[in-house]
Write a structure and sequence with these properties.
With 117 residues, this protein is α+β, with helices and mostly antiparallel strands. The chain is 21% helix and 31% strand. It folds into two domains: 38 residues, ZPR1, zinc finger domain (N-terminal domain of TfIIb); 47 residues.
Amino acid sequence: MADIYETKILCNNCNKETSKDYIIRDGFKIRVWECKQCGRIWEHPGDKQNYDNFAKMKGKTYRVKLRLVGNSYTVSIPREIIEFEREMIKEFEKMDRLIRMSLEEPEKLSLFFYDED
């Protein structure tokens, strides 16, 4: 199935063909069409929906348990977060994959589901 981003779109104000570009919002890449004549921008509907889903989750705080398993501690990651990541990163076939974790501040631990290397 072809992506709507592959189609040509005419600006309904200027009747000029738009150019493809992208914007970054909260670290999210959103594909857009931009009219160079009048400056109007249309966001890709799928990317916009993914961003809106992210924005809803971003404001939530989850209370999870910290458990001792052998010599390590484990934290349960809420299913909602994993399902969101699964949608965003289609490579999530193996749940035993490694993720990156770092202690950023004395009370701040960060998990990264993929490396940016």
